[in-house]
Amino acid sequence: MKNIDSRIQELETELSKLPVPSDTSSGTRRGFQTRGIEENEDLWVEIVLPQPASLDQVVLVPLLAKGAQGQIPGYGFPQRFLLQAFDADGDTHILIDETAENFPNPGIFPVSAACPRGVLISRIRLTATETWKRNAPQVLALAEMIALSGNRNLATKAEVRASSSREMYPTWSRSNLIDMETPLGLPVLPLPTETMSGWHSDVATRRDTQKQVTLDLGTTYKVDELRFVPARPARLSATAQYGFPSRFIVEASTQEDFSDSWLIHDQRESSLPPPGQNLLQFDLAGKPLRFVRMTSYRLRERSADYVLALGEMQAYVGNRNIAIGKTTIADESLENDRWGRVGLTDGLTAGGKLIELPKWFRGLEKRRRLENEKALLTAGRAKLLEESEKTLVFGSIVATCSFAVFAGLYVLRSKRQRRLDRELHRERLARDLHDELGSNLGSIALISSFAKEGEGDEAQMRRDLIEIEEVARESADSMRDMVELLGGGHAGAANDWLAVTNGLASRLLRDVKLDCRLPERPLLIEPDLETRREIYLFCKEVLHNIAKHADANFVSFHLKPKANGLRIEISDDGCGFDPSTVSQGHGLSNLQKRAAGLRASLSLESLPGRGTFISLDVPRGRRWRKPKTR
């Protein structure tokens, strides 16, 4: 979506720099069309140039016709066709061959073909091998056929021939094929700022008021072509007819007083159909002139009044418009920021800059390609969005179902794991009870059996009872510690495991000076139950060994929380031993096994007569949790 949007933005930037077709038939002359096709008939139309000429390209401009359902762009443009050029020797040159498959309807955009270089072309023919079909008669129709040589259209004086022609002047006619009236409008390149609209006379109250405007080229030129550009104020639509006279004459002269004038065009006897936004071209064949004058005999009505207005006057010598910046002579002129004498020859008109025909057609064809690409991207974007929404909905359903399944599996697995943990705790608790209480109860039973036999004296019996009392008290203390350690005494008792460990040290080392430093408050991250149990039993075994074997006067017992776990340090100033020669009976094997079960690092340092130092670094496990507030 991001790539598509980026490309669409690039296309919109490029399109903003290209000419825009008018997209309306602003004049009254639509174009040319044949009659309906008959059996075994080929529909064709051709133009015969006044004399063979070297052409750069041929341009076909489609029609914009009116139908029952509205405007029909590309009306009558053939689905399959052949465009041919015939040279002065009668040889045929194929310019476009679209007879193999259907040609996409171009709408109103021009279709152009390059001509062979250095070949003098006398006529151009378009043949429809498969006609346009759209709930209408099968006809061949065009708005214009243009033969470009440089910047000039040489087809304006051509003869038009056709297999047949629908003659309904001014709408349909053979002559409409070469009159430069198309739905494309004027050859204008849009500009971001407003431009002058042209030249404008004073307002008249009578239709037959004569008004004149004269172009002074400054010196005499052999002019090949004269063009008039109709005016259109920026606020009016392209279909509005503004200021172009319906009856007029165009004269040329080499003298300012027109003493040697000659007529270029005489439109006094009949009214000219409104030209709309289309060029009016007059072929002068290189006649010398300096002054060109238009004189109106019947003005076109504006709104209860009458004016003479022109957008631009152009004079071509070869491929160059020499009228740019030349002088405009007029007895009357509306002068403001939109109209003025300079507006007749500034190369601008309402909406933009006037450009040459080849550049205009290239720009329009590029616009057609870019708009087609943009349309495909927009359609693809909509389809992608639709597919993405479907995928999102389907994916959400699948994800929800998958989450429910995995959540259910996770719950079942968690329950199973908790059940296994409980079983494991039961087994370990049973083993601890067996090792601790079973041994003590066995000692009580053995001492009791000796006392029962009555073979000893009274003093011996008293000693046996004292020993039984000590063993029973030790068993009760161990049972109480185990219950407190496992959290079975009261809610939140799991947080008291440090106090249980502290009490253990105090009992086992009550006859020794003890430096016991355990955290007074619950740790930020508490070990899980199994880890607490193993730490308790590890400490109990070490402290029991010190009480039984070390003969120490001072013992240090420290438990320190670390960022990644806990550290336990236990040291004494007792007799010490050589770890390399010690037997298994001292319980070192049990300590190593418990350290391995905790994945902890065990360190033991001892020398005979120098005491013993033991440290255990317990890493933080994944089941460690923040303590619950009591």
UniProtKB/TrEMBL annotation:
Residues 533-620 form the Histidine kinase/HSP90-like ATPase domain. Residues 426-486 form the Signal transduction histidine kinase subgroup 3 dimerisation and phosphoacceptor domain. Keywords: Kinase, Membrane, Transferase, Transmembrane, Transmembrane helix, Two-component regulatory system. The keyword Kinase applies. The chain crosses the membrane at residues 392-412. This is Sensor histidine kinase. One of its GO terms (molecular function) is kinase activity.
